[in-house]
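hey so u asked for the seq, here:
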Amino acid sequence: MQITCNRISDSADIPRILYETPRTDITCEGQCDCACVAGLPTSRQPPVPLADISYSLNPDSLLRAAPISDDYYITLGKDFDHIVLNHSALVIANHFDRARSFQEIPHAWRKAWDDEIIHSTLEQMLVLGLLVPEDYTAPTFTEMPNVLTAWLHITDRCNMRCAYCYLPHTCTDMFAETGYAVIDAIFRSALAYGYTQVKLKYAGGEPLLSFPLVVELHRYAGKLAKQYDLELDGVVLSNGTLLTAQMVETMQSLGLRLMISLDGLGQHHDCQRHFADGQGSFDDVARAVDLALSLDFVPNVSITVSGRNADGLPDLMAWVLDRDLPFSLNFYRENDLSASHVDLRLEEERIIVGMLAAYKTIEANLPRRSLLASLADRANLSTSHLCTCSVGHSYLVFDYLGRVAKCQMDMENTVTDANSPNPLAAVRESNIGICNIQVDEKTECHDCQWRYWCTGGCPLQTYRTAGRYDAKSPNCNIYRALYPEIIRMEGLRLLKYCNVLT
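ran it, structure tokens below
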């Protein structure tokens, strides 16, 4: 990861701006068992000479001066990225709280800094999108992801009986011919809509129970990707307990990645993820993680946070960070099969306390990579966006029979099957099942400063709670309590590693 820093001088009195160079390898981050979110493009203007016109702070700025330390602050906006400023840079930025010309530079600035420093700072603010011309019109964003993601329900069999699982676990597998038809259907839709990348999520049940089929289908998908000049990304979503060295080596050879579910250490994991015979699975999952790492294969860790395991999150974070594992913290979603387990529910205060305690552990062990898309359920604070996930637009879910639904948690509402000429078209046009509307259509989110990062949470969970899709998330209060801390930690991370890398 590259971190770009504007360090004009070591003096704390010199204006200083830190930011991270935008990343292109976004597919390597936080895998989970949900649809991936597509972000909005952020402003990156080419360097231009300072013109004799008026400029002002970007009106879409969300946080103009959120403190992260005694002398540093972080700001972000709808159409620009996270930027860290020291106090002197913040003074300069706030000078443009109303439209001013660059010629209207206070005399005190010239006494404190020379013209080169002042102009360099102003130019960088302009390039980053923090300052904009007086006649600036914010771009109208339309999400146009270049990745078509598909969930393949390889098998309904599973060796575990997790408390929050939404599947009945019958002894059914996808037939190979069905799998080939599914892969063909995915590529038909990708080509029809001009996607440049296909991402396949091999899931279950437990997909390692049908690992030979995963291998067979991914090899076939690789041939189609090469034929049609498309990028291919694949991830196996597993509980990890059946992982072997041979499986790891096969995934490495195919370019497949691995996501392993781990909800805590010891009993904090076992209380909600146990084998069919009731025995805990933590030891087997931990063994799988360490096996993968020993073979230079880094798995993503998906953590489901519930009322049962919230207290154990700090210890789990220490374990994950010690191994430098990418991870995502995802909230439990109630479903018909789990509703009887009332202790899984997200009691607000307990979840907030547990999550903030986990953040303290992370703050003491900040990784080099950004965690903005990993720390708060479906919220992606790394980039602004309009929808919580890609469901209904750039996402296909295939069950073991090849039937197509919009979301894996809504698989009973199928809209077509793999024989469709273009299953994604059927998904986009269908009124069956989940409705994933944009945040601007959610009446209870209109006045929220976080709306373009939170986008109202999981639409299915909102509907289950409120009976409509345009309401705010039932987890809204939890989100609001967590987001400021996440932003502050990102500022600390930029500050820490910019200092190291400069």
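The longest helix spans residues 476-501. The radius of gyration is 24 Å.
lmk if thats what u needed
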